[in-house]
Amino acid sequence: MIGGGCAGLAAATRLAEQGMSPTLFEASSQLGGRARAVSWKGLQLDNGQHILLGAYGETLCLLSLAGIKPGHSLLRLPLQINVPGRFELIAPKYLPAPLHILAGLIRAKGLSLKERMAALRFILWMRLNHFTLSADETLTSLLTRKAQPANVIKLLWEPLCLAALNTPLDSASAQVFLNVLRDSFAQSSADSDMLLPRHDLSTIIAEPLAAYILAQGGNIALNAPISRLARTSNGFEIETADGKITQFDQVIVATSPFRVAELLAELPELKDIAALCTQFSYQPIYTIYLQYPENVELNAPMVGLTDSHGQWVFDRGRLCGQHGLLAVIVSAEGAHQKLTQEALAIAIRKELSHVFPHLPEPLWHKVIAEKRATFACIAKLKRPRQETALPGLYLAGDYTAGDYPATIEGAVRSGVQCANLILSHTNTQVAK
């Protein structure tokens, strides 16, 4: 495994579960990729505040395998969007899907009856069409065709799109957005639940999965960037930056797509894949942490924002016991990218003070900018398959072919699929 993010960890965990002894190489000193902790002023912060969904079955299965109890590590809430003074939607848990979503919309505050009915018609249309388009298009195009009012787009569809796809509506893939809604809205009401981490993601994901891999006989090499991947007569050889060469019969490349071309440089059979990976564009995510006095708290662990740089603010005191610490998420590209980090933090502070007038001045702030946080999940995007033209070499990552955008679940699904391909190939050889 080359790469110790969620995809690489998922692949290695699945292989370890089946009795194999995977070796995982990670270029940095820390596992987890974008889902990792950052130490700051004695606190463990996340390099990006994540939201998981009840529909993330592969992720939840993996965490359970590693001994993580979701009820302890994740706060489960029914789907809710609360924008103070503007909009409130809560999906009741006592109704089955999709009635819980329909009931939530009927009772939503901040939308007129006409606007609620338009949103309901759109959901019913999606269900009748099995959440499938005859051809992909941008989400703006689809919402326009389906006569979604501007207020519904602004308060409902745009926040959901940015949270799931991290891509502006004008370029976001409508089909991928419908895939996420299908899995969240159409089967079980629990699938739409929001799962908010109670600890940093290194504690919830990377560390327990790494411990499981090691306990099953796997190997993990940190600070081990790969300088060369080459084909041999019976497999592949991997050379690390320190000159150490190791032979493997099967390899999973689980890095970001912008690193793939360099790794495949000595494999001309995969030049088309390398070229495809260089064509991806990317979207940023900024997380702005603001530390207030410890007695400061919001009336909910997660609150929506509108007419501001950020889309969501999280109360880390309610979630993680980091009292007085708020985390604001700014998804996708926008005007905030023209600001310095200091100016952005000041702007966010002012925006919060308008929404929550009781807030005093923060004691400090910290901006974490992931400028290539996710691939841009645009309409009609070509994504490489996990299985390549070279037997024994696979690609894992949220950017590979699949239903999901750049999410933890997308990465985990890809890693598990690569592992299953290896296991299938191994079992076939044994059967012969």
Brief overview, please?
The chain has helices spanning 6-17, 57-65, 70-73, 99-106, 113-128, 139-145, 150-165, 174-185, 201-215, 260-263, 271-278, 316-320, 341-355, 408-431, and strands spanning 23-25, 37-40, 43-46, 52-53, 74-77, 80-83, 87-90, 194-197, 219-221, 226-232, 235-240, 245-248, 251-253, 282-291, 302-304, 312-315, 325-331, 364-375, 393-395.
Give a verbal description of the structure:
With 432 residues, the protein is of the alpha+beta class. Helix content is 36%, strand content 21%. It has 14 helices and 19 strands. It has helices spanning 6-17, 57-65, 70-73, 99-106, 113-128, 139-145, 150-165, 174-185, 201-215, 260-263, 271-278, 316-320, 341-355, 408-431; strands at residues 23-25, 37-40, 43-46, 52-53, 74-77, 80-83, 87-90, 194-197, 219-221, 226-232, 235-240, 245-248, 251-253, 282-291, 302-304, 312-315, 325-331, 364-375, 393-395. The strands form seven sheets. Strands 15-16-17-14-18 form a five-stranded antiparallel β-sheet. The two termini are 26 Å apart. The mean pLDDT is 95.
